[in-house]
Design brief:
Layout lengths: L9 E4 L3 H13 L5 E4 L9 H4 L11 H20 L16 E2 L7 H13 L4 E4 L1 H7 L11 E4 L2
Parallel strand pairs: 1-2
Antiparallel strand pairs: 3-5, 4-5
């Protein structure tokens, strides 16, 4: 090691969403840490995180997964101000769309149990009847299913 190199507590390889989030939360818990995020593209122009078209869904059956998703959604919504630097907001341009799962008639009871669990964990989930599904999403064939949960996020 070069004696002139700064001493680091932690080096994180990759500054995408996982590397940056790891650095953020480590520093939030231990502000005195010396952390370096090594990212080959400092502009993030070609980073895969910015090119992803993913979302954040809450339609899980394990409470832990639901809690992580709810936390993530809240964090994303507050990101612009939480990550502001020198009074400049840090917009992420996230569009909260939603997820729609369509199930065949023989899976409706399972679907209803899952929606009940998700609501109990604080999720906003609409359980749509075939008629409501057709009204909200006219492109869906309501003859083929009996229930569809739709969650924003």
């Amino acid at each position: 090691m070069n004696p002139k190199s700064p001493k680091l507590d932690i080096a994180i390889l990759g500054g995408g969403i996982l590397g940056s989030a790891t650095a953020y939360f480590l520093l939030k818990e231990s502000p005195d840490l010396s952390i370096c995020v090594v990212e080959p593209d400092p502009t993030y122009e070609f980073a895969s995180t910015l090119r992803a078209s993913g979302g954040c869904r809450v339609q899980f059956t394990c409470p832990e997964n639901i809690a992580m998703s709810l936390y993530s959604i809240g964090f994303i919504k507050a990101f612009e101000q939480a990550m502001a630097s020198n009074g400049r907001p840090a917009p992420v341009d996230w569009v909260e769309g939603g997820y729609l799962f369509i199930v065949p008639p023989d899976n409706v009871a399972n679907l209803e149990r899952n929606v009940k669990r998700q609501r109990a964990e604080g999720c906003v989930v609409d359980l749509l009847t075939p008629q409501e599904l057709k009204a909200k999403f006219p492109c869906c064939d309501r003859q083929r299913q009996n229930g569809s949960p739709h969650a924003r996020g």
